[in-house]
Amino acid sequence: MTPKPLKVIIAGGSIAGLSLALMLEKNGIDFVVLEAYPTIAPKAGASIGVLPNGLRILDQLGCYNEVVDMAEYPVEKVLFRDSAGQTFWSLDDFGREMVDCHGYPVVFLDRRMLIQILHDKIEDKSKVLTSEKVATVENTASHVTVTTQAGNSYTGDIVVGADGIHSTVRKQMWQEAQRADPTWIDPSEEKALPATYACVFGISKGVPGIEKGTLSSVLNEHTSYLIPSGPGDRTYWFLVRNLGKTMYGSDIPRFTKQEEEALVKEHWDDYVAPTVRFSELYEHKISSVYTSLPEYVYKKWYFQRIMTIGDASHKFEPITGQGGNNAIETAASLTNHLISALNANASQPLSTEEISSVFGKVQQQRHDRVWDLVKASHARQRLECMETPTLKFVAKYVFPLIPKQVIRDQWIQTYCPALSLNMLPQPNRPRKIPYHDELLRAPVSRGPLQLMVYVAYISLAWLAFQLLFVAMEGNGTRDLIRDVVIRRVMTEKEVPLRQDYTGFQGIDRIMQVLVAMFFSTVTSPSPQQIVQILYFLSAVLPLITIFTVEGFRPKNKWTLLALPSLWATLCQLRGIGVIAPLYFLTSAFVSRSVWYYSSVSIKLSVATAKAILPAVILGYIIPSMLLFFPYTDTDTHQVIIAFWQPAPVLVPILTGIFSYFTKLRAGQHSNESSNRTKEDTYLPHLSAVYKATGIIAACFHAFVIIGCVVLNDFSLTDVLLRKDSFAPVSDLEDGVFVFFQNDCLMTAVAVFLCCMVTVWDLYRVGLSNVTLLGGLGAVVAGFGLVGPGATAAAVWCWREHLLGGRH
Which of 210, 307, 459, 610 is the most buried (most CB within 10 A)? Predict the structure, then answer.
């Protein structure tokens, strides 16, 4: 590898420092690590949890197998315990789900073990120097000089402070900034570092009663425990307590061994498991430390040729384990931007301005993410310490009721935005959920345009109401329907209106109105009216399918989308032209977050996917066909029309029934099922549904278009559009014709907008390269060639494959 014209001085042989050193070495960048301790991996210190976002980068660096082997026992179960040590909530499949979703487990090992692995991977160990504690850092126009307490000086292009929360490099950087640019550093930052909690953490050996592969959180008032099992017979533990108030800067206390023992004595008899007290952990300890837990993200991480990473720039509480993992992330971000700048400058050294620009890009990329994670750590610590009566109530009574999917979605928000090294290949670790840097582009929110989408849907619903119901009143259709219901005779045909369908007066009254409207349409002598209603029913078919699919999507559980039968009922009662925009508005709201599209629970079960097509055929297609049979008995025809009305409602109901029996049958043939290939996924079955319903809608669209072109007395505008919906109608048939024309038109407009929002969403979350402009052309072409229903089916089928077929 060609050496790069850059030398980096790294202060601190920490996880951040050695990770950065290894990254630089793999990219041909010269470096030197200055470690204050006499050994690179002293036997002091605590444990570290290595999470998927950290392991993914370590995997790129060739450290993954060593880390997992050293840890021995990945976390398989997460347990939440009360003050008696009893489990009140658990994630028993935590380990499997973490690997399935994100490709990597969560492991715990001694911090020094990870440091040793990183050190062992560095080829030129002569560049890692011990007993070299940084004393001063001096910037110049062309280089930076570091002097250690041993009296040695080192010159490089940049210095990176990976020397912890009490960073000497950061203090030197502030002094340099004060001399050169006093406005660069906020003077209040020197005392801004806060600490609300303190912690006794330790490592114990041979503690009975702690199950391997478990991570336990024990909740108490104003104190909590975190207890992960470690390799061999090790157990790691953290006893966290509230300091009583938040302290800042130099007021943050440092504790003696006597103070540690006094705190331990207070909690000696605390239960950390049903048969294990804290005393057993402490009596079996091989090391322990009592320290305050500062938590902060500094406003400035760099000045000229000096930068800080890891705890020196962003300090976490240990409860979420993100401190070390985000130190690795920041090291990777720095490496990415350095390599990018060096590649852009060929063989020339980077100027101070270019280096400062690199540092600024690193902080810009990392700042918001680490702040969000620091705040999340603090919030979780407050909850587990049950700091207020409200938090105590939430911890004891609300938290155990939270669906596990909510927790899984939190993992997605934590791990998916994690970055990795751009220049090193990603090892092939199968996972269901992509990281953002594996997508076509980083996901972004809808921003202010989201409000415009909502307004557009609401406006469509309002316009549809005007064209359907206000126009019905204005053009006389409603009076004609009232006349039919009152006289009990359908006037134009002199056919008696059936009065009884269910035996329930309220339902039968509604049925009379609907039968009067549909009977006048399906028995109309006007070919335009027959063609229009056939076209409309076929176009609605894919929408009923979409309602059903979204209703059974696990991700939509606990949202209004999970009630497809309710939406179908509303469509039948108030017109799909009014309800479709409101449904798509709800869908847009539910799917507003970028995390919506990352969740595994966006995928349907195979049983449900298999059930939808039979349900659509039996619940909607066959009843719709029965509407147009040439019945000789008008009473029978009215019954058929009446019992068609709940057809869209039946589709999701039948889907649930068929799905249940499919799962039941699969359970009875479990041995057979276990031998199926992984290709037996929901996608092929769901694709068949979209294709079948789309083809039906496309065929009717083609039939109407061709008919209007070939036949002289057929006009597309006469079939589908009404020039003046408020003009008086000649009879009930004409009035109903106007109603269905407008219903179909407004449904098509809502579908068009929904398709465009879907195209935009898939682009903005990085799943598609189809831009809004490209999508506009495709959707317009689809509407013209195959119609709105088939276009909706095609868009949803495409969306489904992007969501479910990524891995």
Answer: 307
What is the number of structural domains in the chain?
2
Residues 362 and 467 grouped into a single domain: no
Give strand pairing partners of 314. 297
Q: What is the mean pLDDT of residues 410-424?
A: 93
Domain boundary among 438, 471, 491: 438
Helices (H), 645-786: 647-668, 670-674, 682-710, 716-720, 732-764, 772-785
Indicate whether 380 and 454 sit together in one domain. Answer: no
Is 443 part of a structural domain of the chain? no
- Torsion angles phi and psi, residue 85, rounded to 5: 80, 5
Sign, Cα dihedral of 6, 11, 17, 18: positive
**What is the reported pLDDT for 493?**
66
pLDDT in tens, 109-142: 999 999 999 999 999 999 999 999 999 999 999 9
pLDDT classification of 677: cutoffs 50, 70, 90? very low
Q: Which of 438, 460, 493 is the last residue of a domain?
A: 438
Same domain, 123 and 68: yes
pLDDT above 50 (res 678): no
Instruction: For residue 459, give the H/E element and its range.
Output: helix 449-465
Please give the pLDDT value at position 805. 60
Q: Say how far apart CA 701 and CA 784 lie, in whole Å.
A: 9
Q: Which two tokens stand for residue 274?
A: 């049903």
Q: How many CB atoms lie within 10 A of CB 777?
A: 11
Q: What ranges in 501-646 are assigned the alpha helix state H?
A: 505-522, 527-552, 564-574, 576-590, 606-616, 622-626, 634-644
pTM confidence score: 0.86
d(C-alpha 672, C-alpha 629), whole Å: 44
Under 8 Å between Cβ of 32 and 156: yes
pLDDT (0 to 100) of residue 673: 42
In a domain, 700, yes or no: yes
Q: What are phi and psi of 345, to 5 degrees?
A: -105, 5
**Phi and psi (nearest 5°) for 491?**
-55, -55
Same structural domain, 42 and 122: yes
CA proximity to 307, closest of 24, 9, 33, 36: 9
Q: Is residue 444 part of a domain?
A: no
Query: Per DSSP, what are the bridge partners of residue 234?
Result: 205
Predicted local distance difference test score (pLDDT) of residue 799: 95
Buried/exposed 476-514: b ≥16 CB within 10 Å, e otherwise: bbbebbeebbeeeebbbeebebbeebeeeeeebebbbbb
Cα–Cα nearest to 236, from 188, 270, 202 = 202
Q: Give the tokens for residue 367.
A: 């700042």
Asked if the model's pLDDT at residue 317 lies above 50, the reply is yes
CA distances from 239 to 73, 216, 260, 351, 374 (A): 22, 12, 11, 48, 19
- Asked if residue 194 lies in contact with residue 249, where contact means CB atoms within 8 angstroms, the answer is no
- Helix (H) or strand (E) run with residue 300 in it: none
Average pLDDT score, the chain: 92
Give the CATH number of the domain where residue 351 resides. Answer: 3.50.50.60
> CB under 8 Å, gap of 24 or more: what pairs does 90-99 form?
91/404, 91/407, 94/215, 95/213, 97/408, 98/52, 98/411, 99/431
- Answer yes or no: do 368 and 453 share one domain: no
Buried b (16+ CB within 10 A) or exposed e, 644-655: bbbbbbbbbbbb
My answer on whether 538 and 586 are in the same domain is: yes
Same structural domain for residues 394 and 299?
yes
Cα–Cα distance measured from residue 677 to residue 251, given in angstroms and rounded to the nearest whole number: 62
Question: Residue 482 has which token pair?
Answer: 């009232």
Claim to verify: residue 372 and residue 462 sit in the same structural domain? no
Q: Is 186 left (phi over 0), alpha (psi -120 to 50) or beta?
A: beta
- CB-side exposure of 413: number of CA atoms within 13 Å? 15
Q: Is residue 213 part of a domain?
A: yes
